[in-house]
Structure formats: structure tokens, C-alpha cells
Amino acid sequence: MQQRPLVDMTLSHHLAYVAVDGIDGSWSFPHSARPGRDEKTFVADVLDDLRQRYGFTHDRTVIGGFSIGASMAWYTACQQGEKAVAMITFSGVFWDPLPKAEDCVADVPRIIHFHGTADQTFPLAGRAIGANFHQGNAYDSMAILRSRAKCDVKAAKTITLDGVECDDVPGCIRGDSIMCIHDGGHEARADMLDAALTAVGFPR
Fold first, then answer.
1. Of the options 3.40.720, 3.30.420, 1.10.287, 3.40.50, the CATH number for the domain spanning 4-199
2. How many helices (H) and strands (E) does the chain have?
3. With the C-alpha atoms ordered 125, 128, 129, 135, is the resulting torsion angle positive or negative?
4. Is the bond preceding residue 123 a cis peptide, omega within 30 degrees?
5. Which ranges carry the Phospholipase/carboxylesterase/thioesterase domain (predicted)?
6. Is residue 29 pLDDT above 90, yes or no?
7. SS3 (DSSP) at 159
8. Under 8 Å between Cβ of 129 and 135
């Protein structure tokens, strides 16, 4: 792990850090630039293995990811979100064409997503990757999961996590949906992870 501070911060919250990876460092989620492995089955197999061998339970599992790994986490929340209590992601969301709310068949867990206004690798508005692929819009992606989770968007309030103002939408099926927009770039910082893990209830 090159992002060792993220590992150390996770361990400090009394959680194991399980690093999964796509083939050749990429992922094959819907509409990604790297078609290949059935990632939904792969992630399901990993979660089943962790449960069977180490006793991991959904109420102690947090899905996470950065950049394209965050995109993979979003598709996991959409398809298998009931297997985790929360999702914490940085600088990556769905890809175009975006799924519809009804395409997400899982009970979406509570969400905290960080994204930078200066991110040029995965901009908030998304961007084209070559002629055939396009990263999705972060606001539109969040709206999809909030709709699937039946969040009360009219009750949105502003909170602060790690000094970043966040849009906190309550009333969701399994917990608040929080989007934190900072003025940084394409990054995942340990201090942000610290604040997010605390916000979703770890340590317990």
C-alpha cells in the first residue's frame, strides 16, 4: 500500500484494512475503460471469505475506495450495499451512462464522499477518457444513491468533517448521505478518513 497513512488510520479505529485490487490495477465495473473480470462476483467472494474465515459481519464492514477504486465502491454499494454498514470514498463516483436509482438493487448504506473542486483526474463534473468512456458527475451520482435510499433531501443540513463543509442529507433507509466538497485535488487523506470513520460510528 502506497497510501500507508490510510491503513494506519483504519487500524487506529480498531478495524482491519482489507485491500482488494482490480486486474492490472484497474476495475471492470459497468462502462469502465477496462472490461474483464466479473467484479460483482469477485467482491462478493471476498466478503464471503472474510465472513467465513474471520467472522466479519456487515455491521462492522465499511466499503471504501479512492479514484477508480471509489467508483468500484459505488457500484458495490449499488449492487451489494446491504453487506456493509457504510461507504467512505474519495475522488471517484459512477461512470456514464449513470445507473438509474432502480438499477441499484441493494439497501444502500450510509455514505460519506469527499471530492475536490480542483480535481483534474476525476473532476466533479466528470470527464471523457478517450473516445468511448466518460467519468460521471459526482452530484448526479450522489442523487441516484440518495433516491435509492429514499433520503429526505428537503431536510439537508450542513455539517463539518475535518474542516470541510459537507451536505448532510438525513432520512435515508440506513443512515445519512454526506457529500463533502473541499478545495483540494485528487486525494484521499488520512485526516478525512479519521473524521469519516468517527462519523459512521467507529470505534464502537
1. 3.40.50
2. 5, 9
3. positive
4. no
5. 51-137
6. no
7. strand
8. yes
